[in-house]
Amino acid sequence: MMKNIVDVLSLQNRVQETKIQKTKPTDYRKIDKIGIVARFLFECAIKLEIKPLTSACAAIIYHRFFKEVNTSDYDEYLIAASSLYMAGKIQDDPVKIRDVINVAHCTLNRGASPLELGDEYWSMRDAIVQAELLIARTLKFDLNFEHPHKFLLYYMKTLQDWLGSTIWNSVPIAKTAASFLQDFHHSEKILNHKPTHIAICCLSLTLQTYGVQVPLTDESEESSMWYTPFVPDISKDKHWEIIEDIIEVYKRESEIDNM
């Protein structure tokens, strides 16, 4: 376990460096791998220039939908595109449906030109709108999500005062924790945990990665863990389970990059 934690940042960095250095973009049509559609969703989100919370919301919509249905019954890429369109409305970060259509189309079909206002365009537009209604009905119109982001901000502010500015500024704690949280949205396992638990584990993984010890705490005793005052209902086993789930995201991404 400790070796995994020590190595996770280098694994994260290798995944990011591979994405930057790759001359050939991901060919989504030719790769059948767990996590590939989530990568597509976030690539589209970046191209659409939507906010991180909006793309996270889209990922939650996507994961929740496929938790309720059989994956093989629906076009995952269509659901991902529709999830992005819905998330923009929910988070008051609207994106034009024409932009969603063209970004999704060009991302799936590398080198393709934006669709003209013809049969293919109107067919895809209708499919996204119909998928939006399907998703809403499948989720019983429950589209209000409690995101871990707000809890992470609160925990980081408190921990910054606890650690002191010297230690806090010595390593990129806030940036790395936020990155862990955003990347965890690639995994359907994010649905298995409470938002408060996810937030604290992203921060805990960051501290473990950089070897930062929180003052006046004893990690040998569960009751003396630094995060106990923040989330008293999380057990040590649950803490490690979530961290393992976060690390798994980078293993998946690395496998996809090496295909």
Your description of this structure?
This is Cyclin-Q. InterPro entries: Cyclin-like_dom, Cyclin-like_sf, Cyclin-Q_first_cyclin_box, Cyclin-Q_second_cyclin_box, Cyclin/Ssn8, Cyclin_N. Keywords: Cyclin. With 259 residues, the chain is mainly alpha-helical. It folds into two domains: 8-139, Cyclin A, domain 1 (Orthogonal Bundle), CATH 1.10.472.10; 148-254, Cyclin A, domain 1, CATH 1.10.472.10. It is built from eleven helices and no strands. It has helices at residues 2-21, 36-48, 52-68, 76-90, 97-108, 119-138, 149-163, 165-170, 173-184, 195-210, 236-257. The model is unreliable at 1-22 (pLDDT under 50).
Topology record:
Layout: H1 2-21, H2 36-48, H3 52-68, H4 76-90, H5 97-108, H6 119-138, H7 149-163, H8 165-170, H9 173-184, H10 195-210, H11 236-257
Main features:
single chain; 259 residues; mainly alpha; Cyclin A, domain 1; 2 domains; elongated; disordered N terminus; Cyclin-Q_second_cyclin_box; cyclin; Cyclin-Q; cyclin-dependent protein serine/threonine kinase regulator activity; Cyclin-like_dom
Overall pLDDT confidence: 88
Given the helix and strand composition, which structural class is it?
mainly alpha
- Model regions low in confidence, pLDDT < 50 over at least 5 residues: 1-22
Count of separate DSSP helical elements:
11
Query: Can you tell me the CATH topology of the largest domain?
Result: Cyclin A, domain 1
| Bulk shape | elongated
Strand content: under 5%
Termini separation comes to 26 Å
The CATH C-level name of the largest domain is Mainly Alpha
The strand count comes to: 0
Organism: Glossina austeni
Keywords: Cyclin
Pfam families: Cyclin_N
Family: Belongs to the cyclin family. Cyclin-like FAM58 subfamily.
